[in-house]
Design brief:
- The protein has 261 residues and is mainly alpha-helical.
- Helices cover 75% and strands 0% of the residues.
- The protein contains seven helices and no strands.
- Helix 1 packs antiparallel against helix 7, helix 2 crosses helix 5 and helix 4 runs antiparallel to helix 7.
Length: 261
Amino acid sequence: MINFLKKQRNNLIQSKFGKYSIYAIGEIFLVVIGILIALQVNNWNENRKNLIKEQVILKQLRAEFKSNLVQLDEKIVLSSQIINSSEKVLKMIDNPLNVNKDTLYNNLSVLTLDPTFDPISNDLIVSGNLQLINNLKLKNSLSNWTSDVMSLREMELEWQKMTLNVNFPFIIRLNIYRDLANNQYKNKSVPIYILDKNVRQKLEIGKSKRSVNVESVLNNPEIESIISRAITANHVTNLQSLALKKKINNILDLIEKEIKK
């Protein structure tokens, strides 16, 4: 009898332990599920916040690259103007008869132009925001942007050095800068590189009373080399500018697709 009671007691304990074990496992399972759900919700919230931040960055980049594109187009126009005017001067050198002085000086004045590209820079790499860009192709293009711009600036720097160290001293030695400047400003046009295109500021310099004759300018031993270098230097930078313009357009296309998602 006593053995029977002991056996029943042990069975009851084991039965209760089994129920408690199942209950405990169930509780643990529910806690784990709850934690996983909480983590999932938290991740979803973080992803949603990051997507919102990405859209803000993309729209800012779109505005910046559109502005960069406008500036780059202006630079290409100026460089093309230098090339076209320099080619006209070469023709005058080759055919010096009946060359109009004002026409010559209008074309020579491009030697004082210094078109440079100074884009708006949103340094996503330094700020760490580049990681918010999900499109891998766009991310790579943005990563390479700084080096692409530097390649163009290196070429621009060569022309800038020539403008300051060769062109201006040459023009001053010829004593024709006043006449060049007078021709530049007398039409009252606004240079393309001026920030405010609506500005109308009259500037009168007048012609020099010590003007040199056309023949002495065209026969100067330096002019042909300087003009030829103006053509080649700006031709190369324009090729680089056009390549960069293509990259900007590709970046804008990628940004637009990501914004519209």
